[in-house]
Write a structure and sequence with these properties.
globular, alpha/beta, eight-stranded parallel beta barrel, six-stranded antiparallel β-sheet, TIM Barrel
Protein backbone atom coordinates (compact mmCIF):
# COMPACT_ATOMS: atom_id res chain seq x y z
CA UNK A 1 0.00 0.00 0.00
CA UNK A 2 1.12 3.53 -0.72
CA UNK A 3 1.25 6.45 1.74
CA UNK A 4 -2.04 7.70 3.16
CA UNK A 5 -3.30 10.89 1.47
CA UNK A 6 -4.64 13.42 3.97
CA UNK A 7 -7.36 15.85 2.75
CA UNK A 8 -8.05 19.31 4.08
CA UNK A 9 -11.64 20.01 5.26
CA UNK A 10 -12.07 22.26 2.20
CA UNK A 11 -11.45 19.34 -0.16
CA UNK A 12 -13.08 16.66 1.99
CA UNK A 13 -16.66 17.97 1.74
CA UNK A 14 -16.87 18.02 -2.10
CA UNK A 15 -15.24 14.59 -2.23
CA UNK A 16 -17.78 13.23 0.24
CA UNK A 17 -20.62 14.55 -1.93
CA UNK A 18 -19.10 12.91 -5.00
CA UNK A 19 -18.73 9.61 -3.17
CA UNK A 20 -22.34 9.79 -1.94
CA UNK A 21 -23.54 10.47 -5.47
CA UNK A 22 -21.53 7.54 -6.79
CA UNK A 23 -23.04 5.25 -4.19
CA UNK A 24 -26.57 6.37 -4.99
CA UNK A 25 -26.03 5.99 -8.73
CA UNK A 26 -24.53 2.53 -8.33
CA UNK A 27 -27.22 1.20 -5.99
CA UNK A 28 -29.58 -0.18 -8.68
CA UNK A 29 -26.67 -1.98 -10.33
CA UNK A 30 -25.53 -3.39 -6.99
CA UNK A 31 -29.06 -4.54 -6.21
CA UNK A 32 -29.33 -6.22 -9.60
CA UNK A 33 -26.06 -8.06 -9.03
CA UNK A 34 -27.15 -9.12 -5.53
CA UNK A 35 -30.26 -10.75 -6.97
CA UNK A 36 -28.14 -13.21 -8.96
CA UNK A 37 -27.22 -15.06 -5.78
CA UNK A 38 -28.06 -14.82 -2.09
CA UNK A 39 -25.81 -11.97 -0.92
CA UNK A 40 -27.11 -11.44 2.61
CA UNK A 41 -24.30 -11.85 5.12
CA UNK A 42 -25.33 -14.79 7.26
CA UNK A 43 -24.01 -15.90 10.64
CA UNK A 44 -21.81 -19.03 10.52
CA UNK A 45 -23.60 -21.82 8.73
CA UNK A 46 -23.89 -25.30 10.24
CA UNK A 47 -24.89 -27.58 7.40
CA UNK A 48 -25.65 -31.25 7.98
CA UNK A 49 -25.70 -33.77 5.18
CA UNK A 50 -28.21 -36.42 6.21
CA UNK A 51 -28.02 -39.78 4.45
CA UNK A 52 -30.65 -42.11 5.98
CA UNK A 53 -30.01 -45.01 3.57
CA UNK A 54 -33.66 -45.97 2.95
CA UNK A 55 -34.58 -45.50 6.59
CA UNK A 56 -37.44 -43.34 7.85
CA UNK A 57 -36.21 -40.44 9.96
CA UNK A 58 -37.69 -39.51 13.32
CA UNK A 59 -37.85 -35.82 14.32
CA UNK A 60 -36.20 -36.53 17.67
CA UNK A 61 -33.06 -37.79 15.87
CA UNK A 62 -32.17 -34.34 14.54
CA UNK A 63 -30.95 -31.49 16.75
CA UNK A 64 -32.68 -28.89 14.62
CA UNK A 65 -31.78 -25.97 16.87
CA UNK A 66 -28.07 -26.67 16.34
CA UNK A 67 -28.31 -26.49 12.55
CA UNK A 68 -28.85 -23.74 10.01
CA UNK A 69 -29.32 -26.03 7.02
CA UNK A 70 -29.95 -29.68 6.16
CA UNK A 71 -28.88 -31.22 2.86
CA UNK A 72 -30.83 -34.43 2.35
CA UNK A 73 -28.84 -37.06 0.42
CA UNK A 74 -29.59 -38.09 -2.23
CA UNK A 75 -31.93 -37.44 -5.08
CA UNK A 76 -31.05 -39.10 -8.39
CA UNK A 77 -31.26 -38.11 -12.06
CA UNK A 78 -33.33 -40.28 -14.41
CA UNK A 79 -34.32 -39.39 -17.97
CA UNK A 80 -32.81 -35.98 -17.39
CA UNK A 81 -35.07 -35.19 -14.42
CA UNK A 82 -34.52 -35.10 -10.67
CA UNK A 83 -36.24 -38.00 -8.90
CA UNK A 84 -36.39 -39.33 -5.37
CA UNK A 85 -33.79 -41.90 -4.51
CA UNK A 86 -35.76 -43.94 -1.98
CA UNK A 87 -39.40 -44.83 -1.18
CA UNK A 88 -38.99 -43.13 2.21
CA UNK A 89 -37.86 -39.78 0.81
CA UNK A 90 -41.29 -38.15 0.75
CA UNK A 91 -41.87 -38.98 4.42
CA UNK A 92 -38.35 -37.86 5.31
CA UNK A 93 -38.80 -34.53 3.57
CA UNK A 94 -41.97 -33.98 5.58
CA UNK A 95 -40.11 -34.86 8.79
CA UNK A 96 -37.28 -32.45 8.05
CA UNK A 97 -39.61 -29.62 7.05
CA UNK A 98 -41.54 -30.17 10.30
CA UNK A 99 -38.36 -29.34 12.22
CA UNK A 100 -38.95 -25.70 11.31
CA UNK A 101 -41.44 -25.68 14.17
CA UNK A 102 -38.37 -25.94 16.44
CA UNK A 103 -36.10 -23.77 14.29
CA UNK A 104 -38.08 -21.50 11.92
CA UNK A 105 -34.94 -20.42 10.06
CA UNK A 106 -33.77 -23.96 9.27
CA UNK A 107 -33.20 -24.49 5.56
CA UNK A 108 -34.04 -27.90 4.06
CA UNK A 109 -32.38 -28.70 0.74
CA UNK A 110 -32.11 -31.82 -1.37
CA UNK A 111 -28.69 -32.89 -2.59
CA UNK A 112 -28.70 -34.52 -6.02
CA UNK A 113 -25.99 -36.88 -7.22
CA UNK A 114 -23.26 -38.07 -4.91
CA UNK A 115 -20.44 -40.48 -5.65
CA UNK A 116 -22.59 -43.27 -7.08
CA UNK A 117 -25.36 -41.19 -8.66
CA UNK A 118 -23.33 -38.63 -10.61
CA UNK A 119 -23.31 -40.68 -13.81
CA UNK A 120 -26.15 -38.81 -15.54
CA UNK A 121 -24.95 -35.24 -14.97
CA UNK A 122 -22.85 -35.00 -18.13
CA UNK A 123 -25.76 -35.99 -20.37
CA UNK A 124 -28.21 -33.79 -18.49
CA UNK A 125 -26.15 -30.60 -18.85
CA UNK A 126 -25.21 -31.19 -22.49
CA UNK A 127 -27.73 -28.85 -24.15
CA UNK A 128 -29.91 -25.89 -23.27
CA UNK A 129 -32.95 -28.10 -23.80
CA UNK A 130 -31.68 -30.89 -21.52
CA UNK A 131 -30.75 -28.41 -18.80
CA UNK A 132 -34.18 -26.77 -19.03
CA UNK A 133 -35.84 -30.17 -18.62
CA UNK A 134 -33.85 -30.78 -15.46
CA UNK A 135 -34.45 -27.31 -14.05
CA UNK A 136 -38.18 -27.58 -14.63
CA UNK A 137 -38.19 -30.88 -12.72
CA UNK A 138 -36.20 -29.28 -9.88
CA UNK A 139 -38.74 -26.47 -9.52
CA UNK A 140 -41.57 -29.03 -9.38
CA UNK A 141 -39.60 -31.14 -6.88
CA UNK A 142 -38.80 -28.23 -4.56
CA UNK A 143 -42.39 -27.01 -4.72
CA UNK A 144 -43.90 -30.44 -4.09
CA UNK A 145 -41.81 -31.17 -1.01
CA UNK A 146 -41.70 -27.56 0.31
CA UNK A 147 -37.90 -27.45 0.16
CA UNK A 148 -35.64 -24.42 0.37
CA UNK A 149 -33.37 -25.19 -2.54
CA UNK A 150 -30.94 -27.55 -4.20
CA UNK A 151 -27.41 -28.81 -3.61
CA UNK A 152 -25.57 -30.11 -6.70
CA UNK A 153 -23.20 -32.93 -5.76
CA UNK A 154 -21.60 -33.80 -9.12
CA UNK A 155 -18.58 -36.00 -8.54
CA UNK A 156 -17.04 -34.71 -10.76
CA UNK A 157 -17.37 -32.46 -13.85
CA UNK A 158 -14.91 -33.48 -16.54
CA UNK A 159 -13.66 -36.45 -14.52
CA UNK A 160 -14.65 -40.09 -14.37
CA UNK A 161 -15.57 -40.32 -10.67
CA UNK A 162 -17.16 -43.71 -9.97
CA UNK A 163 -16.91 -44.83 -13.59
CA UNK A 164 -19.21 -42.02 -14.72
CA UNK A 165 -19.64 -40.55 -18.18
CA UNK A 166 -17.77 -37.29 -18.61
CA UNK A 167 -16.84 -34.85 -21.37
CA UNK A 168 -14.52 -31.87 -21.81
CA UNK A 169 -17.68 -29.79 -22.27
CA UNK A 170 -18.65 -30.55 -18.65
CA UNK A 171 -16.62 -27.57 -17.47
CA UNK A 172 -18.65 -25.02 -19.41
CA UNK A 173 -21.95 -26.84 -19.01
CA UNK A 174 -21.51 -27.03 -15.23
CA UNK A 175 -21.34 -23.23 -15.19
CA UNK A 176 -24.35 -22.90 -17.49
CA UNK A 177 -26.45 -25.27 -15.38
CA UNK A 178 -25.82 -23.26 -12.23
CA UNK A 179 -26.36 -19.93 -13.98
CA UNK A 180 -29.68 -21.11 -15.38
CA UNK A 181 -30.74 -22.65 -12.07
CA UNK A 182 -29.98 -19.38 -10.27
CA UNK A 183 -31.97 -17.38 -12.79
CA UNK A 184 -34.97 -19.69 -12.45
CA UNK A 185 -34.70 -19.74 -8.65
CA UNK A 186 -34.70 -15.94 -8.59
CA UNK A 187 -38.02 -15.93 -10.44
CA UNK A 188 -39.52 -18.78 -8.41
CA UNK A 189 -38.64 -17.36 -5.02
CA UNK A 190 -40.63 -14.24 -5.87
CA UNK A 191 -43.60 -16.47 -6.59
CA UNK A 192 -43.10 -18.65 -3.50
CA UNK A 193 -42.32 -15.79 -1.16
CA UNK A 194 -39.20 -17.44 0.26
CA UNK A 195 -35.51 -17.58 -0.59
CA UNK A 196 -34.33 -20.56 -2.64
CA UNK A 197 -30.77 -21.59 -1.88
CA UNK A 198 -28.34 -23.06 -4.40
CA UNK A 199 -25.09 -24.74 -3.39
CA UNK A 200 -22.58 -27.27 -4.66
CA UNK A 201 -20.53 -29.96 -2.99
CA UNK A 202 -17.03 -29.31 -4.34
CA UNK A 203 -14.12 -31.70 -4.48
CA UNK A 204 -11.23 -30.29 -2.44
CA UNK A 205 -8.60 -30.86 -5.10
CA UNK A 206 -6.55 -29.02 -7.68
CA UNK A 207 -8.12 -31.32 -10.30
CA UNK A 208 -11.65 -30.19 -9.42
CA UNK A 209 -10.66 -26.56 -9.84
CA UNK A 210 -8.94 -27.32 -13.17
CA UNK A 211 -12.14 -28.91 -14.54
CA UNK A 212 -14.52 -26.14 -13.40
CA UNK A 213 -14.86 -22.37 -13.66
CA UNK A 214 -15.23 -21.66 -9.97
CA UNK A 215 -14.69 -17.93 -10.31
CA UNK A 216 -17.77 -17.77 -12.53
CA UNK A 217 -19.71 -20.54 -10.80
CA UNK A 218 -19.58 -18.89 -7.38
CA UNK A 219 -21.62 -15.92 -8.68
CA UNK A 220 -24.70 -18.12 -8.81
CA UNK A 221 -24.21 -19.94 -5.51
CA UNK A 222 -25.04 -19.24 -1.92
CA UNK A 223 -22.30 -21.56 -0.70
CA UNK A 224 -19.52 -23.76 -2.02
CA UNK A 225 -19.45 -26.76 0.32
CA UNK A 226 -15.82 -27.84 0.24
CA UNK A 227 -15.39 -31.57 0.85
CA UNK A 228 -12.15 -31.19 2.80
CA UNK A 229 -11.82 -34.85 3.69
CA UNK A 230 -10.83 -38.16 2.07
CA UNK A 231 -7.44 -36.69 1.18
CA UNK A 232 -6.15 -40.14 2.13
CA UNK A 233 -8.28 -43.24 1.65
CA UNK A 234 -7.34 -46.91 2.13
CA UNK A 235 -7.00 -48.50 -1.28
CA UNK A 236 -6.48 -45.19 -3.07
CA UNK A 237 -3.05 -44.62 -1.55
CA UNK A 238 -0.46 -47.20 -0.58
CA UNK A 239 0.34 -45.41 2.66
CA UNK A 240 -1.70 -44.20 5.60
CA UNK A 241 -2.35 -40.51 6.10
CA UNK A 242 -4.53 -37.81 7.61
CA UNK A 243 -7.80 -37.89 5.70
CA UNK A 244 -8.94 -34.45 6.91
CA UNK A 245 -5.88 -32.41 7.95
CA UNK A 246 -6.42 -28.74 8.72
CA UNK A 247 -2.87 -27.79 7.79
CA UNK A 248 -0.24 -29.48 5.66
CA UNK A 249 2.17 -31.70 7.58
CA UNK A 250 5.69 -31.21 6.13
CA UNK A 251 6.11 -35.00 6.35
CA UNK A 252 3.07 -35.58 4.11
CA UNK A 253 4.21 -36.76 0.67
CA UNK A 254 0.99 -35.45 -0.92
CA UNK A 255 1.19 -32.04 0.79
CA UNK A 256 -2.59 -31.86 1.22
CA UNK A 257 -4.78 -30.04 3.73
CA UNK A 258 -8.03 -28.14 4.15
CA UNK A 259 -6.07 -24.90 4.40
CA UNK A 260 -4.36 -25.56 1.07
CA UNK A 261 -7.72 -26.33 -0.57
CA UNK A 262 -9.32 -23.16 0.83
CA UNK A 263 -6.43 -21.09 -0.52
CA UNK A 264 -6.74 -22.75 -3.93
CA UNK A 265 -10.46 -22.05 -4.10
CA UNK A 266 -9.89 -18.45 -3.08
CA UNK A 267 -7.23 -18.13 -5.78
CA UNK A 268 -9.72 -19.60 -8.26
CA UNK A 269 -12.10 -16.74 -7.48
CA UNK A 270 -14.37 -18.04 -4.71
CA UNK A 271 -14.75 -15.43 -1.95
CA UNK A 272 -14.16 -16.75 1.57
CA UNK A 273 -17.69 -15.74 2.64
CA UNK A 274 -19.08 -18.41 0.28
CA UNK A 275 -16.75 -21.25 1.27
CA UNK A 276 -18.18 -23.74 3.75
CA UNK A 277 -15.51 -26.00 5.24
CA UNK A 278 -16.46 -29.67 5.13
CA UNK A 279 -15.53 -31.94 8.04
CA UNK A 280 -15.98 -35.70 8.47
CA UNK A 281 -17.99 -37.46 11.14
CA UNK A 282 -16.16 -40.68 10.25
CA UNK A 283 -12.66 -42.13 10.00
CA UNK A 284 -10.60 -44.33 7.71
CA UNK A 285 -8.81 -47.50 8.80
CA UNK A 286 -5.61 -48.98 7.39
CA UNK A 287 -4.33 -52.47 8.25
CA UNK A 288 -0.91 -54.12 8.31
CA UNK A 289 0.70 -50.80 9.27
CA UNK A 290 4.12 -50.82 10.95
CA UNK A 291 4.82 -48.92 14.20
CA UNK A 292 7.13 -46.21 12.79
CA UNK A 293 5.71 -42.79 13.78
CA UNK A 294 2.76 -44.70 15.28
CA UNK A 295 1.66 -45.69 11.79
CA UNK A 296 1.45 -42.21 10.23
CA UNK A 297 2.50 -42.07 6.55
CA UNK A 298 3.42 -45.74 6.57
CA UNK A 299 2.58 -48.52 4.10
CA UNK A 300 -0.84 -50.03 4.72
CA UNK A 301 -3.75 -51.86 3.16
CA UNK A 302 -7.55 -51.56 3.39
CA UNK A 303 -9.30 -53.40 6.21
CA UNK A 304 -12.53 -55.06 4.98
CA UNK A 305 -15.71 -53.59 6.48
CA UNK A 306 -13.73 -51.20 8.65
CA UNK A 307 -15.40 -47.91 7.74
CA UNK A 308 -15.51 -46.29 11.16
CA UNK A 309 -17.93 -43.52 12.10
CA UNK A 310 -17.14 -41.31 15.08
CA UNK A 311 -19.57 -43.15 17.33
CA UNK A 312 -17.82 -46.46 16.68
CA UNK A 313 -14.38 -44.91 17.16
CA UNK A 314 -15.12 -43.50 20.61
CA UNK A 315 -17.05 -46.58 21.73
CA UNK A 316 -15.00 -49.45 20.33
CA UNK A 317 -11.53 -48.12 19.54
CA UNK A 318 -10.45 -45.41 21.97
CA UNK A 319 -8.93 -47.10 25.00
CA UNK A 320 -9.92 -50.45 23.47
CA UNK A 321 -6.49 -51.42 22.14
CA UNK A 322 -5.95 -48.16 20.24
CA UNK A 323 -3.89 -45.19 21.44
CA UNK A 324 -4.70 -41.63 20.39
CA UNK A 325 -1.90 -39.50 18.97
CA UNK A 326 -1.85 -35.90 17.76
CA UNK A 327 -0.31 -34.59 14.56
CA UNK A 328 0.56 -31.08 15.73
CA UNK A 329 1.56 -29.89 12.25
CA UNK A 330 -1.77 -30.96 10.71
CA UNK A 331 -3.89 -30.23 13.83
CA UNK A 332 -5.68 -33.59 13.71
CA UNK A 333 -5.71 -36.78 15.81
CA UNK A 334 -5.12 -40.37 14.79
CA UNK A 335 -5.22 -43.78 16.44
CA UNK A 336 -2.76 -46.63 16.29
CA UNK A 337 -2.86 -50.17 17.62
CA UNK A 338 0.53 -51.84 17.57
CA UNK A 339 -1.06 -55.18 18.43
CA UNK A 340 -3.59 -55.01 15.57
CA UNK A 341 -1.20 -53.05 13.32
CA UNK A 342 -4.07 -50.72 12.44
CA UNK A 343 -4.01 -46.96 11.84
CA UNK A 344 -7.15 -44.78 12.05
CA UNK A 345 -7.45 -41.22 10.74
CA UNK A 346 -10.46 -39.31 12.08
CA UNK A 347 -11.88 -36.03 13.42
CA UNK A 348 -12.56 -35.35 17.09
CA UNK A 349 -13.75 -32.48 19.25
CA UNK A 350 -10.26 -30.99 19.63
CA UNK A 351 -9.49 -30.87 15.91
CA UNK A 352 -13.01 -29.71 15.13
CA UNK A 353 -12.75 -26.78 17.54
CA UNK A 354 -9.56 -25.71 15.77
CA UNK A 355 -11.30 -25.91 12.40
CA UNK A 356 -14.17 -23.77 13.66
CA UNK A 357 -11.65 -21.19 14.90
CA UNK A 358 -10.04 -21.32 11.45
CA UNK A 359 -13.43 -20.69 9.81
CA UNK A 360 -13.91 -17.64 12.04
CA UNK A 361 -10.41 -16.35 11.42
CA UNK A 362 -10.61 -16.77 7.66
CA UNK A 363 -14.10 -15.31 7.37
CA UNK A 364 -15.50 -18.49 5.82
CA UNK A 365 -19.23 -19.14 5.58
CA UNK A 366 -19.30 -21.95 8.15
CA UNK A 367 -18.98 -25.71 8.48
CA UNK A 368 -20.74 -28.61 6.83
CA UNK A 369 -20.33 -32.25 7.75
CA UNK A 370 -20.79 -35.69 6.27
CA UNK A 371 -22.80 -37.08 7.73
CA UNK A 372 -25.21 -36.55 10.57
CA UNK A 373 -25.69 -40.17 11.63
CA UNK A 374 -21.94 -40.68 12.02
CA UNK A 375 -21.98 -39.24 15.54
CA UNK A 376 -24.82 -40.54 17.70
CA UNK A 377 -23.08 -39.02 20.74
CA UNK A 378 -23.77 -35.47 19.51
CA UNK A 379 -20.34 -34.35 20.69
CA UNK A 380 -19.10 -33.14 17.30
CA UNK A 381 -22.21 -31.11 16.50
CA UNK A 382 -22.18 -29.65 20.01
CA UNK A 383 -18.57 -28.58 19.41
CA UNK A 384 -19.48 -26.78 16.17
CA UNK A 385 -22.57 -25.11 17.62
CA UNK A 386 -20.69 -24.06 20.73
CA UNK A 387 -17.81 -22.60 18.71
CA UNK A 388 -20.12 -20.49 16.55
CA UNK A 389 -23.02 -19.67 18.86
CA UNK A 390 -21.86 -20.37 22.40
CA UNK A 391 -22.65 -23.22 24.72
CA UNK A 392 -26.37 -23.69 25.16
CA UNK A 393 -27.25 -21.34 22.31
CA UNK A 394 -29.25 -22.36 19.27
CA UNK A 395 -27.87 -21.92 15.78
CA UNK A 396 -31.13 -20.40 14.63
CA UNK A 397 -31.42 -17.97 17.52
CA UNK A 398 -29.26 -15.17 16.08
CA UNK A 399 -30.17 -15.48 12.41
Amino acid sequence: MGPICKLSPRHAAPLARLLLAAIVLSTPLAALHAKSAHQKVLPPQIIAYIFPRDRALQPAEIAAKHLTRVNYAFANIQDGRIVTGSPVDEANFATLVSLKQQNPTLGVLVSVGGWLWSGNFSDMVLTKQSRSRFIESVVEFVDRYKLDGLDIDWEYPGMIGAGNRFRPEDQRNYTLLLKELRGRFNREQNRLGRTLLLSVAAGASTEFIAHTEMGRVQRYLDTVNLMAYDYYEPGSEKISGNHAPLYTDPADPKRVSADRSVLEFEHAGVPPRKIVLGVPFYGHVWGDVGPTDHGLFQPGVPVPNAFANYGNIVTNMLQQGFTRYWDAAASVPYLYSEQKRQFVSYEDTESLALKCAYVRRKGLAGVMFWEYMGDPTGALLDTINGAFYGNGAAAGSSR
